[in-house]
Design brief:
globular, alpha/beta, 2 domains, 13 helices, 339 residues
């Protein structure tokens, strides 16, 4: 515990991985140092940067005693976050990526929501920062959630909530994530960290307000070669691990729901790959979808899937190209006519 304005207040550790972001670090750090909640431990993890980032980190530490700096060999985002976790002493853990920034009251609002609702996790909306525009949303409401309510929203991606796997849009009570680490050398590393935390939680709270500014990748297609490599090596295996984790820690029924939405995700990815004319990703996704056919047949026939989803999936197994053509016609003709 620490002291803020004469009363005892929980300490929040904010872990900031830093790698060659000298041009963005000042913006990120200014947003953290300007937080209305001042009981912070700010851990900058220099992950072997070769630009001016290490010197900037040290300069910030000299100016503010709340800042700790770790200099280490380059090991990737997960390794940097794990290094920060090793020395974090806060009662709560937050993450900020060094090319992003946050609103001044982000951690105060999320912390107060946790305390006020007896929650172990707070989740907020975020601003999507593109080169030419900012996308935001939310009505400012605060919604307490049980574990199962939280998981159903997370799994199904309900439109009225923005609860994704990104750790930077969340505040975790330290006891909840104690012993958890990020998988080193992998991408899509947030999937399993967030899944395990959600499975462990008893209560969570959702803040329908944007507090985090997430800078999206501005270059290239989401279906480029690098994206495909990451998808098959890391993302898809993590989603399968996500289903197994839910089956073990929660229930077979919740795992079946996760399996259903995983299959839907792969079918959406297939459409994207076909439209991008990326044959390698396209054929790889066909193989991934067919890999789970027997298990997904059981799940789709259990009553979880809508009639339309069952028909679309059957069409895919008859002919993936025909399935893609039907989806294209539906999106271009049927949906506009309904509107």
């Amino acid at each position: 515990m620490t002291v803020q304005n004469g009363s005892k207040t929980d300490l929040i550790s904010i872990i900031v991985p830093v790698y060659n972001v000298a041009d963005y670090l000042d913006r990120c750090m200014h947003s953290i140092l300007s937080q209305t909640y001042q009981a912070l431990e700010i851990i900058l993890v220099d992950d072997g940067s070769t630009d001016a980032s290490p010197a900037k980190c040290d300069e910030y530490a000299r100016k503010d005693s709340r800042i700790k700096v770790i200099h280490k060999k380059n090991g990737g985002l997960s390794d940097a976050r794990n290094a920060g976790l090793e020395i974090a002493s806060g009662d709560y853990i937050g993450y900020v990526d060094s090319d992003d920034w946050i609103e001044p009251d982000m951690y105060e609002c999320m912390y107060r929501a946790c305390v006020g609702h007896g929650a172990q996790i707070a989740v907020c909306r975020y601003f999507s920062e593109y080169r030419d525009r900012t996308v935001s949303g939310g009505d400012g409401s605060i919604v307490p959630l049980s574990r199962d309510e939280l998981l159903k929203i997370y799994i199904s991606g309900q439109d009225e909530y923005v609860i994704y796997n990104s750790v930077w849009s969340k505040l975790f009570k330290r006891d909840l994530v104690r012993g958890m680490v990020f998988p080193k050398g992998r991408n899509s590393e947030d999937i399993m960290y967030t899944t395990r935390a959600f499975c462990r939680a008893e209560r969570a709270v959702y803040l329908d307000q944007c507090f985090y500014h997430y800078v999206l990748d501005r270059e290239g297609s989401i279906m480029n070669v690098g994206r495909g490599e990451r998808m098959f090596r890391d993302e898809i295996p993590f989603w399968r691990e996500h289903i197994a984790c839910i089956r073990e820690m929660v229930s077979p029924q919740m795992a079946d729901l996760a399996g259903y939405f995983f299959q839907r995700r792969l079918l959406f990815y297939y459409i994207d790959a076909r439209r991008a004319k990326n044959k390698g990703i396209e054929s790889g996704l066909v193989a991934e979808i067919k890999k789970d056919k027997a298990e997904m047949d059981r799940i789709y026939d259990s009553g979880i899937a809508s009639r339309g989803d069952r028909m679309r999936r059957k069409l895919f197994f008859l002919s993936p190209p025909v399935y893609a053509a039907v989806v294209w016609l539906y999106d271009r003709i049927v949906i506009p006519l309904r509107r």
